[in-house]
Amino acid sequence: MEKQIEILNKLANIMIESYNYKYHKLVCNFELDLEDESVGQEFYSVYDGRRSNLLLDDPDWIVSDLIFDLQNEMYLHTGGRWNAFTLTILQNGESSTDFKYG
Could you tell me which CATH number the domain at 1-101 has? Predict the structure, then answer.
Protein backbone atom coordinates (compact mmCIF):
# COMPACT_ATOMS: atom_id res chain seq x y z
CA MET A 1 0.00 0.00 0.00
CA GLU A 2 2.88 2.38 0.73
CA LYS A 3 4.22 1.99 -2.81
CA GLN A 4 0.79 2.81 -4.25
CA ILE A 5 0.54 5.98 -2.15
CA GLU A 6 4.07 6.98 -3.17
CA ILE A 7 3.16 6.63 -6.87
CA LEU A 8 -0.10 8.57 -6.44
CA ASN A 9 1.78 11.34 -4.62
CA LYS A 10 4.27 11.59 -7.49
CA LEU A 11 1.40 11.85 -9.99
CA ALA A 12 -0.29 14.51 -7.84
CA ASN A 13 2.94 16.52 -7.66
CA ILE A 14 3.31 16.43 -11.44
CA MET A 15 -0.25 17.71 -11.78
CA ILE A 16 0.30 20.53 -9.27
CA GLU A 17 3.64 21.53 -10.81
CA SER A 18 2.04 21.59 -14.27
CA TYR A 19 -0.41 24.35 -13.30
CA ASN A 20 0.65 27.42 -11.30
CA TYR A 21 -2.65 29.29 -11.16
CA LYS A 22 -5.71 29.33 -8.91
CA TYR A 23 -8.02 26.34 -9.07
CA HIS A 24 -10.80 24.74 -7.09
CA LYS A 25 -9.76 21.34 -8.39
CA LEU A 26 -7.31 19.70 -10.75
CA VAL A 27 -8.46 16.54 -12.50
CA CYS A 28 -6.56 14.05 -14.62
CA ASN A 29 -8.20 11.07 -16.30
CA PHE A 30 -5.75 8.33 -17.21
CA GLU A 31 -6.56 5.49 -19.63
CA LEU A 32 -4.30 2.47 -19.85
CA ASP A 33 -3.99 0.40 -23.03
CA LEU A 34 -2.17 -2.81 -22.18
CA GLU A 35 -1.99 -4.02 -25.80
CA ASP A 36 -0.30 -0.84 -27.04
CA GLU A 37 1.48 -0.27 -23.71
CA SER A 38 0.31 3.33 -23.82
CA VAL A 39 -1.34 5.79 -21.45
CA GLY A 40 -3.84 8.41 -22.53
CA GLN A 41 -4.56 11.38 -20.34
CA GLU A 42 -7.01 14.25 -20.05
CA PHE A 43 -5.89 16.97 -17.63
CA TYR A 44 -7.96 19.99 -16.67
CA SER A 45 -8.61 22.55 -13.94
CA VAL A 46 -11.89 23.87 -12.60
CA TYR A 47 -12.11 27.38 -11.16
CA ASP A 48 -15.34 29.28 -10.48
CA GLY A 49 -17.23 26.59 -12.35
CA ARG A 50 -15.14 26.99 -15.51
CA ARG A 51 -13.14 24.13 -16.93
CA SER A 52 -9.77 24.73 -18.62
CA ASN A 53 -8.03 21.96 -20.54
CA LEU A 54 -4.34 21.64 -19.68
CA LEU A 55 -1.22 19.66 -20.53
CA LEU A 56 0.83 17.78 -17.98
CA ASP A 57 4.43 18.93 -17.82
CA ASP A 58 5.99 15.52 -18.45
CA PRO A 59 8.86 15.84 -20.96
CA ASP A 60 10.54 12.61 -19.81
CA TRP A 61 7.38 10.46 -20.04
CA ILE A 62 7.53 9.70 -16.32
CA VAL A 63 3.73 9.62 -16.03
CA SER A 64 3.38 6.57 -18.29
CA ASP A 65 5.90 4.64 -16.20
CA LEU A 66 4.14 5.66 -12.99
CA ILE A 67 0.75 4.57 -14.33
CA PHE A 68 2.06 1.14 -15.31
CA ASP A 69 3.87 0.82 -11.96
CA LEU A 70 0.66 1.69 -10.11
CA GLN A 71 -1.36 -0.82 -12.10
CA ASN A 72 1.19 -3.57 -11.41
CA GLU A 73 1.36 -2.74 -7.68
CA MET A 74 -2.40 -2.81 -7.34
CA TYR A 75 -2.63 -6.07 -9.28
CA LEU A 76 -0.18 -7.68 -6.84
CA HIS A 77 -2.41 -6.68 -3.90
CA THR A 78 -5.92 -7.11 -5.33
CA GLY A 79 -5.65 -9.33 -8.40
CA GLY A 80 -7.78 -6.84 -10.36
CA ARG A 81 -6.67 -4.96 -13.45
CA TRP A 82 -8.16 -1.50 -13.94
CA ASN A 83 -8.01 0.19 -17.32
CA ALA A 84 -8.65 3.81 -16.30
CA PHE A 85 -8.66 6.04 -13.28
CA THR A 86 -9.20 9.64 -12.30
CA LEU A 87 -7.03 11.54 -9.85
CA THR A 88 -8.63 14.69 -8.43
CA ILE A 89 -6.83 17.26 -6.28
CA LEU A 90 -8.83 19.88 -4.42
CA GLN A 91 -7.67 23.40 -3.63
CA ASN A 92 -7.13 22.43 0.02
CA GLY A 93 -4.74 19.62 -0.97
CA GLU A 94 -7.13 16.72 -0.49
CA SER A 95 -7.12 14.16 -3.26
CA SER A 96 -9.28 11.27 -4.43
CA THR A 97 -9.12 8.48 -6.96
CA ASP A 98 -11.73 6.62 -8.97
CA PHE A 99 -10.63 3.39 -10.68
CA LYS A 100 -12.52 1.83 -13.60
CA TYR A 101 -12.35 -1.90 -14.23
CA GLY A 102 -13.44 -3.66 -17.36
Answer: 3.30.500.20
